[in-house]
Every structure is written in C-alpha cells, then in structure tokens.
C-alpha cells in the first residue's frame, strides 16, 4: 500500500524498535513480553509511530537474548508464545501500526535440533554440512582452523568432542559459542529460511529486520583476518573476510523473491558496511528494501562529522535510488545521550540530533526509551548479562547499560514496567523523573518534544522530499533544506549562539537566546 505521496508505506515511516525484554512485563516475571507490548500500544499511537520492529522473540535459550534461535517458527514462552504475537499483530494493525520482526539467518542456537544432530553425526556428514565445521590447524588439529575472532571476544571457533574418539573438529561462530554459523552454501539452509519467512508473513507480519545481513556467506577458503581492535559492531568491517562476502547477495535475492509474494512486506538489513558502493549493493532492486546505515551512530556531535554521515548515507542510498535510513541508537550501542557527553549537555545534543534526523528524507528508526531521553545505566558487575562481558574476559562491559527496562509510571523501580521488583536488569531510582507518566504531563519533557516533532513530520508537507541541499552556514553549524518540501533544519554544534536564517520557527530543541539558536541545539524553520 502506498502513502498519499505514492511511496511504499515504509519509505517515510518512523519505526519504533521494541526490545521485548525491556518494554513492558505483563506476567510479572521481571522480563518484558508481547502482551506487555500490546498493553502499551496506545502509547505508541500517542507517540505517532508507523511500525514496530521487535527484536527476536522466537524460541531461544537466550544466550544472546533471543539472537540464538532454537526454533525459528515459534515464539518463546518467555514472551508469551505464538498466541501473544497474534494478539499483538491484530491489536497493532487495528491501530494502523505495522509489525516487523527480527530474523536471524546467520546462525542458530546451539540448542537448535540441526546443531544437536550435527554434533551427534560424524565429520563430513550431511548434518555437519548445515554449519561450518573444519579440522583444526597444527599437527594434531588442536589449533583453530583460522585466526578469526568472535565479535563478542575470543576465538570464533570452538572445538567439539567426537563420540568415536577421532580428531575433534571445530565449528565457526562469529558471535557466542552458543550461536553456530550456518553454512549458506547448503540449499537446505535456503529452503528452511524460506519456510520461516512464509510462516511469519502468513501470520500477518509486515516484514523483517535481518540480523547480520552482511554476514551469512563466508569465503570458501576462510582466509585469516587482519587482527584489528574487534570492538563489537562498531569496528571497521570493510575488508574483513568474516563479512560482506559476495555470496551474501544470493541470500538477499532469495529473501526478496519470497517477499515479492507479499508486496507490502519490507526487508531491512543490518548492514555494518561503510563503503558506499559496497553498501549500495545490498539495496539493489532485487535485494533489500532498506539497509541500516550506521554512519549517524558513529558520528561525533561535531558539524563536519555529522554532515559527512548525512552526505554519505544519502549518497550510498542514491546509488541504487533506494530509500535512506536514519538511526541514532539501538540495543547494540550506547544510548546517544551518553555518547554525546551525558548529563544536560548529552540530553540537549540528543534533542538536537532528533530534529536533524527526523527532517531527513527516508525512514527513521527510534529505539525504545530514546523518546524519554534515557541515558546508559552504569550497572554493577553482578547485574551484567550480555555474553560480551564473559567472552571478553571482563574487559568489555557489553550492551546491558542501553537495555535497561522502560520506566512507565510511579516513583520507585520497577516504575510500572513489571509487578516484580526483580527486573532482569535493575532500574535506577533516578529514573523516577523520567517516567512516561511524568513526561506526558510535562510539556517541556523529552517525550513531549518527540511527540511534537513526530506530529509535524507526519503532517506537514514541508517534510516531503527525497533530497536535501546544504545552505551556507558558519563553522560548527549545519543548515540543510529539504528539496521540494522546503523545511530548513539548523544545527548549532558550536559554542556560541547563532543567528537563524529567515523563516518561521516550527520547533526548536532549546529556547532561543535573543532570537539566536544556542549551542547544542537545533531548529526547524519554514
Ligand atoms: C546483531 C544484533 O543486533 C546483536 O544484538 C546480536 O548480538 C548479533 N547481531 C548476533 O545475532
């Protein structure tokens, strides 16, 4: 279905990322669930989102909180089972909110029946051919087959013990040892993915966010990598043999042929590739509809850096006449308030960047809690759950600090997130001032600001456009104009107030000072 401008529904949509463990817990076990999401849909309507992206809810031992899937065609009881998803889809559709799901094709859980069968079968068996098993290197095969590192730390290979006492093979896992990588040269793996895609599409799902969309295919000879500082997903992955191998495009073409049977469905890839030409290849007409471009996430709060991120994101999408995407944070990175310096300054900059992002042409992805101005939480060691903490030998704290549950109401934890005070990650008392309840009542809150911004974005024709032009601006200031629509966005990343161009201020992230835009602020003008 096209919108009133003739664009596909997702082309100018605001997607809201729900991290299901942390959104709302209805059954009182301290972990969020799908009935919790359903119960809060009115909130999402109030906010003005077009679609939800749910992090994985399939059956999983939760070694990586759902990114280790043991049954891709069922919902984990922790999240309420498949009926809870049906209820959510129905209720969301009744409110014109689409529901997209995470799909994890790069790997399965080690508890998946396929992997269990692989371990129980000899080297060279068809069961092993669904994964990437290799003999070790060194005279007795006791060294890993190559030097690849897991993104979470440590080697990307784990050795298995054979039942018949023969030399043990190793299996590849780019993430946790509980997440063995699938072998995408095996047609059975393709067939199974197709089954999974159709299963969810038939249940009414509106599309998929595809996990590690640049990772599925591996070069056959598995060459060594250059050991770089393999810092989570933010490391530079261009020219890294673990990722962005040519064969991955066959997988995307296959996914697209299935989605073409459901013309409204969207495929959004998690593509940590920075070279524009390489990135654009994922957006060819027969591959993904959208690709996450993470340049904005990587940009410092610095005018030249932000401009560079915007220009390159637009340029990469333009190569294939594809829709650009914008995101400031997600469940894998520090929250932007923290990245931009924390405290009042970090928050002011986050507001400013929200205006920069929401005026750009394309699809926007918000991460739950971003609209409340949440910052990362410093969690004590004993609370940490991300496998990164263990696998890095306690050198990287991992992503839990950006995954703390949402504060809804009341003045003490768990702030209406759950009836159970023992939430899966502890919630800080300081969040009593940041609850949805308080922020809805306060016209000066982050939530009220986001609501205003999103209402304007959805309703004003000034935001309609497929390109921007840069207007002249002092150093440390960015000014762009949406071509066609005409909206002007000004960002002051410097240290002095700046005069605004002519026009009416539609919304500003901070009060003007003598008619000027203060530092760490942005404004929209018509
Ligand atoms: C990317 C996901 O966003 C992240 O959370 C996950 O740990 C890895 N892929 C592995 O699935």
TrEMBL record:
Domain Glycosyl hydrolase family 13 catalytic positions: 17-403
Gene3D superfamilies found in the cross-reference section: Glycosidases (3.20.20.80), Oligo-1,6-glucosidase, Domain 2 (3.90.400.10)
Region feature Disordered, mapped onto this chain: 392-413
Molecular-function GO term, any one: alpha-amylase activity
Biological process, per Gene Ontology: oligosaccharide catabolic process
Transmembrane found in the keyword field: no
Alphabetized UniProt keyword annotations: Glycoprotein, Isomerase
Protein family (similarity comment): Belongs to the glycosyl hydrolase 13 family.
Name of the protein in question: Alpha-amylase
């Amino acid at each position: 279905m096209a919108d009133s401008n003739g664009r596909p529904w997702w082309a100018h949509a605001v997607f809201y990322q729900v991290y299901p463990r942390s959104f709302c817990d209805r059954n009182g076990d301290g972990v969020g669930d799908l009935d919790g999401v359903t119960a809060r849909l009115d909130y999402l309507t109030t906010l003005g989102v077009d679609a939800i992206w749910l992090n994985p809810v399939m059956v999983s031992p939760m070694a990586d909180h759902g990114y280790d899937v043991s049954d891709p065609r069922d919902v984990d009881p922790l999240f309420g089972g498949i009926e809870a998803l049906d209820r959510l889809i129905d209720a969301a559709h009744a409110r014109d909110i689409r529901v997209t799901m995470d799909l994890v094709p790069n790997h399965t859980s080690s508890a998946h029946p396929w992997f269990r069968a692989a371990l129980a079968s000899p080297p060279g068996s068809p069961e092993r051919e669904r994964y990437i098993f290799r003999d070790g290197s060194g005279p007795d095969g006791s060294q890993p087959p190559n030097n690849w590192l897991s993104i979470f730390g440590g080697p990307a290979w784990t050795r298995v013990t054979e039942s018949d006492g023969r030399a043990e093979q190793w299996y590849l896992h780019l993430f946790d040892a509980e997440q063995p990588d699938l072998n995408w040269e095996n047609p059975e793996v393709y067939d199974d993915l197709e089954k999974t895609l159709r299963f969810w599409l038939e249940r009414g799902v509106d599309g998929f966010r595809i996990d590690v969309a640049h990772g599925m295919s591996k070069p056959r000879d598995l060459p060594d990598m250059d050991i770089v500082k393999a810092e989570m997903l933010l490391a530079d992955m261009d020219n890294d043999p673990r990722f962005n191998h040519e064969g991955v495009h066959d997988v995307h073409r296959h996914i697209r042929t299935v989605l073409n049977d459901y013309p409204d469905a969207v495929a959004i890839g998690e593509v940590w590739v920075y070279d524009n030409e390489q990135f654009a290849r994922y957006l060819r007409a027969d591959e993904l509809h959208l690709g996450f471009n993470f340049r904005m996430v990587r940009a410092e709060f610095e005018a030249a850096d932000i401009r560079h991120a915007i220009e390159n994101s637009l340029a990469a999408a333009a190569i294939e006449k594809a829709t650009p995407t914008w995101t400031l944070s997600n469940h894998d990175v520090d929250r932007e308030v923290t990245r931009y310096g924390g405290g009042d300054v970090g928050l002011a900059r986050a507001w400013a960047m929200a205006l920069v992002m929401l005026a750009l042409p394309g699809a926007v992805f918000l991460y739950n809690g971003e609209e409340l101005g949440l910052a990362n939480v410093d969690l004590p060691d004993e609370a940490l759950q991300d496998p990164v903490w263990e696998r890095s030998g306690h050198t990287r704290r991992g992503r839990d600090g950006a995954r703390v549950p949402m504060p809804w109401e009341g003045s003490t934890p768990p702030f209406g997130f759950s009836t159970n005070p023992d939430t899966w990650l502890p919630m800080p008392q300081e969040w009593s001032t940041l609850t949805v309840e308080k922020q809805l009542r306060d016209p000066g809150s982050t939530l009220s600001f986001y609501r205003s911004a999103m209402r304007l974005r959805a309703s004003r024709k000034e935001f309609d456009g497929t390109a921007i032009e840069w207007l002249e601006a002092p150093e440390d200031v960015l000014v762009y104009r949406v071509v066609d629509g005409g909206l002007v966005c000004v960002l002051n990343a410097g240290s002095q107030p700046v005069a605004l161009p002519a026009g009416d201020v539609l919304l500003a992230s901070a009060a003007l000072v003598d008619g000027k835009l203060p530092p760490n602020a942005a404004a929209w003008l018509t």
